[in-house]
């Protein structure tokens, strides 16, 4: 993963790099560093921990300079410590490199460089790039040395390089990892994403794979690696930089949980037209094409995958379209069978998840159409898809996905109705009735959030538990997976999600008086079966935290704790169920004093495979 940033111009270099890194911290936050050239001399600073640690260290120094690069890391090769943090330096300490990606042949290159007398200070794959550039920087320019060096690299990279030999230049290159250049007035910025550039300029250029650029205060040159110079026109970005404010909440996660009613209202107003027709403006595939689709192949990871699993239930039920859901990292390496009229539906909040992006590219190479559901506009998945549904969740900063999950579910419910209309599998009356039903969702989410104190009380009671089990059926089986993921990723408590019907095939042996079991049991087609499963848990003294439909007095007798959701059609229950699951995980993590916004070992955007 990792985020890289670079700046050349007259502004305060230290603060530009630090603000850029802060905005990139969703890509990793286990260590960070910057390198700056001042009066021809290269200096660098690195620190383990979150970016505020680097910031604290730099506060004690006076840093001047007009050119520099920075990096925020998510460790792949080598533990998070200062030696492995970037920038990685060449042996003579005159070249600094920041890198996002993985160099697959680094061990081979390392051996070769060692034989040539290079000494390695870190365990990173990046250090080989710095040494290679030093070894190739004999009489030519920095960009020539970079170009020759990257020819030796296999794997994925976006790099920014500075060196004392050419103290007025930043050289950047890309293969497989994103890199964006901001074009200002006598200043240029480079970064892994657009948002960190927007405070400086709204004129941006997306560097494509196989391109290299040389940035100085006065000029920007772009060329194909081992090819000619090319001209690329900056694109004007119309949106503003995402402000990362907590608006009075303790954490981004809590703020984002409480934004969900607004998000839901926003999505409905974007898609549902006054005459109840559904509008997907960026879908870019004709109705006649959609009418003949043979199968949807959903590609996603993590929470987005859970939203995909729920979509399968809906798409097959309403639109009668065969729908497969694959975890992207699995799909890529199995020999799946596809046909021309299959559509790949890539789902990703960030639009940068490496595995999902790779699946998208694989699908396109097989001439399949790719439709995406992304939250981040301008992301790689957005730009490379044939058509897009935007999830309209607004910026999601907390590493645990919350509001984007319900945004995905609302979008996909509406998209399923749209497909059912096109295919004629639902009548207009049925579609209209479903639209009227989903319009209740924002108010119902408000009602769920009003139960915050109940969830806090439950969290206070169970937060010391060693593990949790989550069970559900049908559309709420993925809800159980999502509840377990939320809890484990932010509280570090082991949690498992299971289809309730599978309990007796193994996991029931875990149940004893110390195990809290979150039972998702709203009134749906499988309600009676869930009741039996809850009884099976209680017979073994498991503690039941039950999510049920308002007015269900029967189930309350089977529950140690109960949380109610308003009565709504079965297929919309996962949206409401998600709220108490988020709050439960949140308050448990808070009790355990975990950093919910930036949990250990994670990153918001997973840009390595
Ligand atoms: O940006 P994406 O939706 O592609 O991200 C996928 C997963 O990395 C993400 O959902 C992850 O599992 C979250 N931490 C879950 O809360």
Overview in brief:
This protein is an alpha/beta fold. The chain is 36% helix and 23% strand.
What is the strand and helix layout of this fold?
Layout: E1 3-8, H1 13-24, E2 31-38, E3 41-48, H2 51-59, E4 67-73, E5 88-89, E6 95-103, H3 106-115, H4 126-136, H5 142-150, E7 155-163, E8 170-175, E9 180-183, E10 188-191, E11 203-206, E12 211-215, E13 220-224, E14 229-230, E15 235-236, H6 252-258, H7 260-271, H8 287-291, E16 295-300, H9 302-319, E17 322-327, H10 328-331, E18 342-348, H11 354-365, E19 369-374, H12 380-384, E20 387-390, H13 403-423, H14 428-438, H15 441-449, H16 452-462, E21 467-472, H17 477-491, E22 494-499, E23 516-521, H18 527-539, E24 543-549, H19 553-556, E25 561-565, H20 573-591
Parallel strand pairs: 16-17, 16-18, 18-19, 19-20, 21-22, 21-23, 23-24, 24-25
Antiparallel strand pairs: 1-4, 1-10, 2-3, 2-4, 5-6, 6-7, 7-8, 8-12, 9-10, 9-11, 11-15, 12-13, 13-14
This protein binds 5-amino-5-deoxy-1-O-phosphono-D-mannitol.
Could you characterize the architecture of this molecule?
This protein has 609 residues and is an alpha/beta fold. The strands form four sheets. Strands 3-2-4-1-10-9-11-15 form an eight-stranded antiparallel beta sheet, covered by helices on one side. A seven-stranded antiparallel beta sheet has the order 5-6-7-8-12-13-14. Helix 1 packs antiparallel against helix 2, helix 9 packs parallel to helix 13 and helix 13 packs antiparallel against helix 14. The mean pLDDT is 94. 5-amino-5-deoxy-1-O-phosphono-D-mannitol binds next to helix 9 and helix 17.
């Amino acid at each position: 993963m990792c985020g890289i940033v670079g700046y050349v111009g007259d502004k305060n270099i230290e603060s530009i790099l630090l603000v850029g890194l802060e905005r990139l911290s969703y890509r990793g936050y286990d260590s960070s560093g910057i390198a700056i050239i001042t009066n021809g001399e290269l200096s660098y600073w690195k620190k383990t921990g979150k970016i505020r640690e680097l910031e604290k260290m730099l506060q004690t120094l006076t840093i001047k300079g007009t050119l520099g690069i920075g990096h925020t890391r998510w460790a792949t090769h080598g533990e998070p410590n200062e030696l492995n943090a970037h920038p990685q330096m060449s042996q003579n300490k005159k070249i600094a490199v920041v890198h996002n990606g993985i160099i697959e042949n680094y061990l081979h290159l390392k051996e070769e460089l060692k034989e040539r007398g290079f000494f390695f200070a870190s365990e990173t794959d990046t250090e080989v790039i710095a040494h290679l550039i030093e070894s190739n920087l004999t009489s030519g320019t920095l960009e020539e040395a970079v170009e020759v060096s990257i020819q030796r690299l296999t794997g994925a990279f976006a790099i920014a390089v500075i060196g004392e030999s050419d103290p007025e230049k930043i050289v950047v290159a890309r293969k497989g990892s994103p890199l964006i250049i901001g074009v200002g007035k006598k200043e240029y910025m480079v970064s892994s994403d657009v948002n960190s550039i927007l405070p400086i300029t709204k004129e941006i250029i997306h560097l494509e794979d196989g391109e290299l650029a040389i940035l100085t205060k006065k000029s920007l040159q772009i060329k194909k690696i081992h090819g000619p110079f090319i001209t690329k026109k900056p694109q004007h970005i119309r949106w503003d930089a995402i402000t990362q404010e907590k608006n009075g909440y303790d954490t981004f996660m809590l703020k984002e949980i409480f934004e969900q009613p607004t998000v839901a209202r926003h999505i409905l107003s974007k898609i549902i037209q006054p005459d109840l027709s559904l509008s997907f403006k960026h879908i870019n595939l004709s109705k006649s094409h959609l009418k003949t689709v043979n199968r949807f192949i959903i590609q996603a990871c993590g929470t987005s995958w859970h939203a995909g699993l729920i979509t399968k239930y809906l798409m097959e039920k309403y639109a009668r379209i065969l729908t497969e859901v694959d975890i992207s990292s699995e799909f890529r390496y199995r020999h799946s069978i596809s046909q021309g009229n299959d559509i790949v539906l890539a789902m990703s909040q960030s639009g940068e998840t490496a595995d999902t992006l790779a699946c998208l590219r694989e699908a396109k190479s097989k001439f399949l159409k790719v439709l995406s559901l992304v939250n981040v506009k301008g992301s790689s998945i957005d730009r490379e898809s044939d058509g897009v549904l935007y999830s309209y969740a607004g910026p999601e900063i907390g590493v645990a996905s919350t509001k984007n999950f319900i945004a995905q579910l609302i979008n996909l419910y509406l998209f399923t109705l749209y497909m059912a209309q096109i295919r004629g599998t639902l009548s207009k009356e049925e579609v209209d009735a479903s639209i009227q039903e989903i319009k209740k969702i924002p108010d119902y989410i408000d009602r769920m959030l009003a139960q915050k104190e109940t969830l806090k009380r439950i969290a206070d009671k169970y937060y010391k538990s060693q593990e949790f089990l989550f069970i559900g059926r049908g559309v709420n089986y993925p809800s159980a997976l999502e509840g377990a993921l939320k809890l484990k990723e932010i509280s570090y408590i082991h949690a498992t999600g299971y289809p309730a019907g599978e309990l007796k095939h193994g996991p029931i042996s875990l149940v004893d008086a110390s195990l809290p079991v979150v039972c998702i049991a709203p009134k749906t087609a499988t309600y009676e079966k869930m009741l039996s499963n809850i009884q099976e848990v209680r017979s073994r003294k498991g503690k039941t935290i039950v999510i049920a439909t308002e007015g269900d007095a029967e189930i309350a007798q089977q529950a140690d704790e109960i949380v109610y959701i308003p009565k709504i059609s079965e297929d919309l229950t996962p949206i409401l169920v998600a709220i108490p699951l988020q709050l439960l995980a949140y308050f448990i993590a808070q009790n355990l004093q975990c950093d919910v916004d930036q949990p250990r070992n994670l990153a918001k955007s997973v840009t390595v495979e």
